[in-house]
Amino acid sequence: MARRSITERLAQIEAQKKALQARLGRQERAHDTRRKVLLGALVLQRLEAGHDPAFTQRLADWLRRELPGFLTRDADKALFADLIGSPGRNEAVPTQALKAEGVVPTGTSEAAA
User: Fold this and answer.
1) By the number of CB atoms within 10 A of the CB, which of 18, 27, 34, 109 ranks highest?
2) d(Cα 91, Cα 18) in Å, to the nearest integer?
3) C-alpha separations of 20 from 12, 16, 58, 101 in Å
4) What is the DSSP string of 97-112?
5) Helix axis angle, 6-49 relative to 53-70, nearest 10°?
6) Phi and psi dihedrals of 103, rounded to 5?
7) How does DSSP assign 4-43, residue by residue?
8) Which residue in 54, 108, 109, 58 sits closest to 87, CA to CA?
9) CA-CA distance, 101 to 1, in Å (whole number)?
10) 110/113 Cα distance (integer angstroms)
11) How far from chain centre, in Å, is Cα 107?
């Protein structure tokens, strides 16, 4: 077996480095997505369970204030139409509808409620 030149070995190492960087990027995005899903599930569970009505109301009011400025796509706004309604309204979040849209992972908020 012929020995590869230093240039060829450097090129191979560079290719391995790029592949590892790509894998790391995918892993970081997956972790970020998982954190967002879990945080969203917690918020939805707190809205639905309502063990502390004062906190639930403050959370719902905060979401009504913040979501309209945060959501830019009409499809996203439609997903949260029940939360973006009038202030002071305290409605349960339709988890079944959100699950049907693929927004809430099965077993997150309902299992805790």
Assistant:
1) 109
2) 49
3) 12, 6, 44, 34
4) HHHHTT-S-TTSHHHH
5) 130
6) -90, -40
7) PPHHHHHHHHHHHHHHHHHHHHHHHHHHHHHHHHHHHHHH
8) 58
9) 57
10) 5
11) 15
pTM score above 0.90: no
Domain boundaries, the chain: 6-112
- Please say whether the beta carbons of 105 and 45 come within 8 A: no
DSSP, collapsed to helix, strand or coil, labels residue 2 as coil
- Quote the pLDDT of residue 9: 97
For 60-105, write each residue's pLDDT tens digit.
Answer: 999 999 999 999 999 999 999 988 874 444 444 444 444 444 444 4
In 10 A of CB 40, how many CB atoms? 16
Residue written as token pair 């959100």: 98
Mean pLDDT of the chain: 81
